[in-house]
Amino acid sequence: MSKPANIFRIVHLSDIHAGLIDFHPGYLLDKRFFGRLNQTTMRHRCLAMDRIPAFARLQREGEADFTICTGDLTSIGSAEEFAHCEELLKDILDYAGENFAFVPGNHDAYVRGSWQELSEAFQRLNHGRWKLEELPAVLSVGPVEFILLNAARPCAVWLSTGEMDTAAWDKLDYILASPASHSRSRVLVCHFPVCDHQGAPLSWRTKLVGYKRLIDWAEQGRFNAMLTGHVHYPFVQRIGVSEALAIGAGSLTIYQSCAQIDIDTRTGEITARTIFL
Ligand SMILES: [Fe+2]
Ligand SMILES: [Fe+2]
């Protein structure tokens, strides 16, 4: 069935974790050693890269207007892994063209030494719209005002938390100063969610530091939805006691999941669903 004319459709994928299993001596010096060990012994065997074409079909057959990727494309954020991932996503990127946006996950910002590789991949995938350090940034497309956030930072090996500095929080506060309008839905895009797939807070090891502020802002009607990754099982939840939706695509390669978000261009109504491919 073809997409109704009044629907702006977003397809949302996340957490591919397209790691390689090559090994460089330099990895012994930092947490990349553990990342490689994990990829080689565990993850590599349970990742279904062959589901990526199914997402490309969903995107094409569903006539998606915009495609969002909320990070953890890679395992340790190396240049080789970004190149490998972009090759795997080629059909998806070709279909989307400029109608594609990416925010990094904690695996993409794995160690300080790979920040340049991440910055370059970020610019490539976002068609040079911004430098990574410029986020939060606004992208207005059709009936949507996307606000892209980067909370991915290199952190200790036992943590996968997200964090934004004071300047980034202040900028987001400024962007959200006016209430969301009915004519344009305001959608935050961030790797780190405000809750897990059951609506519960994330643990101290995996949470976005300061996430409660986002719940307050949702309850004040300052945005309408938040698209996220990080939690590998997909979900759609209300944020706090607000009408705003927390939408997690889950992991395309671990749970073969993604999300589809339809926005009615006449009413602004947002309908989100998770899909297992
Ligand atoms: Fe992940
Ligand atoms: Fe993550």
What's the overall average pLDDT, rounded? Answer: 92
What would the principal axes of the Cα set say about the shape?
Answer: globular
By DSSP, the count of extended strands is: 11
Q: How far apart are the termini?
A: 18 Å
How large, in whole angstroms, is the Cα Rg? 18 Å
Structural account:
The protein has 7 helices and 11 strands. It has 277 residues and is an alpha/beta fold. The mean pLDDT is 92. The chain has one domain: 4-Layer Sandwich (Purple Acid Phosphatase, chain A, domain 2). Helix 6 links the parallel strand 5 and strand 6. The longest helix has 15 residues. The protein has a 6-stranded mixed β-sheet with strand order 4-5-6-7-9-8, with no helix packed on it. The structure holds fe (ii) ion (2 copies).
Name some characteristics of this structure.
Purple Acid Phosphatase, chain A, domain 2, binds fe (ii) ion, alpha/beta, 277 residues, 7 helices, six-stranded mixed sheet
Offer a concise description of the structure.
The protein is α/β, with parallel strands linked by helices and 277 residues long. It has seven helices and eleven strands.
Topology readout:
Elements: E1 7-13, H1 32-46, H2 52-61, E2 66-69, H3 79-88, H4 90-96, E3 100-102, H5 115-125, E4 137-141, E5 144-148, H6 166-175, E6 185-189, H7 212-219, E7 225-228, E8 235-238, E9 245-248, E10 257-264, E11 270-276
Parallel strand pairs: 1-2, 2-3, 5-6, 6-7, 7-9
Antiparallel strand pairs: 1-10, 4-5, 8-9, 10-11
Helix pairs in contact: 2-4
Bound molecules: fe (ii) ion (2 copies).
